[in-house]
Amino acid sequence: MDVDNLLDSGLGRDFDDDFEPFDTAGDADLPEERFLDRELSWLAFNQRVLELAEDPATPLLERTNFLAIFASNLDEFFMVRVAGLKRRILTGLALPSNIGRAPHDVLDDISRRAHELQERHAAVYQNMVSPALADAGIDIARWESLDEAEQERLHDYFSRQIFPVLMPLAVDPAHPFPYISGLSLNLSVRVRNTRTGKQEFARLKVPQMLPRFLEISSTEPGRQRFITLEDLIANHLGDLFPGMEIVAHHVFRVTRNEDVVVDEDETENLIQALEKELLRRRFGPPIRLEVTDDMDEVTLGLLVRELDVSEQEVYRLPSPLDLGGLFDLGRIDRPDLRFPKHVPTTSVQLQPNEPNAKPDVFASISRADILVHHPYESFATSVQAFIEQAAADPDVLAIKQTLYRTSGDSPIVEALIDAAESGKQVLALVEIMARFDEQANISWARKLEKAGVHVVYGLVGLKTHCKLALVIRQERGELRHYSHIGTGNYNPKTSRIYEDLGLFTADDQVGKDLTRLFNELSGYAIEKKFKRLLVAPLHLRKGLLKRIDDETANALAGRPAGIRIKVNSMVDEAIIDALYRASNAGVPVDIWVRGICSLKPGVEGMSENIRVRSILGRYLEHSRIFSFRNDDDPQVYIGSADMMHRNLDRRVEALVRLVAPEHLAQIDGLFERAFNPRTSAWSLGADGEWTRHHLDDAGHPLDDMQNRLMQQIAQRKRPGGRR
Questions:
Q1: Where is Mg(2+) bound in this sequence (predicted)?
Q2: Integer CA distances (angstroms), 22 to 50, 106, 496, 574, 590, in order
Q3: Which listed residue, of 175, 375, 574, 615, carries a Cα 20 to 30 Å from 550's Cα?
Q4: How many other CB atoms sit within 10 Å of the CB of residue 254?
Q5: What does DSSP say about strands 467-475 and 610-614: parallel, antiparallel, or unpaired?
Q6: Which three-class secondary structure state does DSSP give residue 516?
């Protein structure tokens, strides 16, 4: 798993505020307590990540990555979701009536579960992963375990490379308690003046630009030894406080409210308002204090008082804190401790017909719709090649594209710049409100504007989350549309670890739909209807509810019916209630969800025909699929939308209908594999508990779906037998 990609993208970004009221009056036939708590469901998702770190069958360095992912996910959960709940308490807002609980009660449940999980997380590192690393020749050493020569070498390194950048900050009447930046690692230091005997307090920030794990020169072949940066600094405090006696030192870490709120209706310049809000975000109030479990009560009391946190918000954990730093260990060159390397293949439909011929994406799309499946199939030779060929092709007149998240060195953005500089009409819809990528997207937007790209920011009050690209090409005196609609971002880095689908088509109807949609996003057009797309916020919810209701009607009439949905999150109450009604009518419903699921499956009289599965592994399951049997005339859609309020009501989302029989069969095959009892997966029970099924009755591993897909897709051949 590529660590840099994980850091760039984040793996838990399902945190927008989703607290809109929901009218349950029309569902008197359904139990009042029919929804699982979304916050606890998210914590259950992160527990599944932790279970991968606990599994000795997971390659060891991948286990360290999963520990780091768990930590990073939980940080974002606190910064946004917990922060949102606290904001509602401070402003006097209650949760919607359908949730049925006060924010204080929800926070109590979150705190109790989060404490349990963080303690379990620390124990997995201390008792399982760290000893396994040592057995594999990777030691995380403590200062006191080093011999004299090793300490001397590290002392020299500290003096030259670390000491000059450290900034101890005293706390006394002349020096108020300093600002503690969010997610920074800090040392609390108590010192005693040897002349006066008076004790003082100081704070020392561990520099974030330095490596968290420093390698120690090892004389033993085949072994690598590391020491944490904070351990090295803590054992050189005498250099920082000469003449003072070091009484005690401890490590602590603060998580702050980093939610961003911009009133788009009240601002004339969205970018300027957002930049001000990003600056303010750095100084959000603390919502979690992590301290090492050996911290004395005097120091803890000072931190609690100065940071104004409650006892509930204090997490006592064994060192090291911030196991997100384990991403650093992921860079160790030990292929034997990783998942086997996988090189994505080029989709057979995008390969040239003749050996050694130059690929022509437009010619391939002209022949038939192409469905690509990342990361099993290459993003670089499909989506990236599509945009790059469009930028270089003299017959291409215009390129229109949405950009939600992209990488820091994006070839997609560079291709759009090249296209604009060559005189093509280029429209880029940049979503600058993409959480935690706001500053990067502002920078890209300005770079694109300087190159002559028409940059727009979508519709006021709506995030543009859809993944769309449209190329207008002149062919034989006529204009032709080439379209791409995907489930994932136009990000070459995350495309290597995110599982996503994308449709390429030259279908004229799809091209006209996208043309109208881009006009709506960049201008003042109000498009009421699309032919092959379902678009939020106006039509997507209604369209999906209609299709669910059609399946319900088919089942009641004795016709073939069935619903299969794959999403990251299943939260929206109206969609869930429609699925309950379908289940009661006898419709078999399969829900394949990565993260949050508020639906209760398997409840008699409500959802006994609903199954819920979750699959986690080396790749992040990210595609969204909606499949309806429709009396054996399947209606299948892929796109960008999860089943959440924000996606259905406050975002521009788009689903496209697949029509090629081979694509419908491919989607059907994915669901058959995901719900096969021989496939390793988690199952959700009616009580909200997830149960992992990864071993058969004889204790043998069940099939890893992602590995099977890698093998299957790599073996695909072009007609005629050539791969």
A1: 405, 435
A2: 33, 18, 38, 8, 24
A3: 615
A4: 22
A5: unpaired
A6: helix
Q: How many Å apart are CA 29 and CA 605, to the nearest integer? A: 10
Residue linked to tokens 């609390």: 188
Cα–Cα distance list, 108 to 290, 558, 679 (Å): 17, 47, 36
Pairing of strands 589-593, 651-658: unpaired
What residues have CB less than 8 Å from 687, skipping those under 6 apart? none
d(CA 656, CA 635): 10
Pairing verdict, β 463-464 and 651-658: parallel
Q: Are 573 and 24 in contact, with CB atoms under 8 Å apart?
A: yes
Which residue would you say has higher pLDDT here, 67 or 272? 67
Quote the pLDDT of residue 495: 92
* Annotated binding residue 637: no
Q: At what angle do helices 60-76 and 38-54 cross, to 10 degrees?
A: 160
Query: At 388, is the secondary structure helix, strand, or coil?
Result: helix
The verdict on whether residue 160 carries a ligand-binding annotation is no
| Residue 263's pLDDT band (cuts 50, 70, 90) | very low
User: What pLDDT is attached to residue 700?
Assistant: 94
Beta bridge partners of 372: 502
437 pLDDT tier (thresholds 50, 70, 90): low
Q: Consult the annotation and say whether 584 binds a ligand.
A: no
Four-point Cα dihedral 363, 364, 368, 369, nearest 10: -120
Backbone phi, then psi, for 175, in 5-degree steps? -130, 100
What would the mean pLDDT of 394-408 be, rounded to a whole number?
85
Pick 144-333's CATH classification: 3.30.1840.10, 3.60.20.10, 3.40.1080.10, 3.30.479.10: 3.30.1840.10
For residue 242, whether the previous peptide bond is cis, meaning omega lies within 30 degrees of 0, is: no
The stretches of 373-492 forming alpha helices (DSSP H) are 385-392, 411-421, 438-450
Task: Identify the band that residue 8 occupies on the pLDDT scale cut at 50, 70 and 90.
Answer: very low
Is 498 part of any known ligand binding site?
Answer: yes
Domain 348-524 architecture: 2-Layer Sandwich (3.30)
How would you classify residue 222: left for phi > 0, otherwise alpha for psi between -120 and 50, otherwise beta?
A: left
**CATH superfamily ID and name for 535-714:** Endonuclease Chain A (3.30.870.10)
- Amino acid in the structure at residue 509: Q
Q: Dihedrals φ, ψ of 170, to 5°?
A: -75, 150
What is the location of CATH 3.30.1840.10 in the chain? 144-333
- pLDDT tens string 208-221: 999 999 999 777 78
Q: Is the pLDDT of residue 560 over 80?
A: yes
pLDDT-wise least confident of 102-111, 132-141, 455-464, 559-568: 455-464
Q: Classify 689 as helix, strand or coil.
A: coil
What are the CA-CA distances from residue 193 to residues 106, 118, 169, 238, 607 (Å)? 46, 37, 16, 12, 69
Using alpha carbons only, give the angle 698, 699, 701 rounded to the nearest 5 degrees.
115
Beta bridge partners of 656: 533, 638
Place 462 in a pLDDT band, splitting at 50, 70 and 90.
confident
Residue 221 burial (CB count, 10 A): 6
Is 708 assigned to a binding site?
Answer: no
Burial (Cβ within 10 Å: 0-12, 13-18, ≥19) of residue 143: middle
CA 651 to chain centre: 17
Tell me, which fold does domain 3-132 have in CATH?
Answer: Methane Monooxygenase Hydroxylase; Chain G, domain 1 (1.20.58)
Give start-end residues of each CATH 3.30.870.10 domain in the chain: 348-524, 535-714
**Among all residues, which ones are annotated catalytic?**
465
The one-letter amino acid code at 148 reads E
Q: How high is the pLDDT of residue 266? A: 41
* Cβ atoms of residues 96 and 34 within 8 Å: no
> Do 575 and 545 form a contact (C-beta atoms < 8 A)?
yes
Look-up of token digits 């509930």 = 312
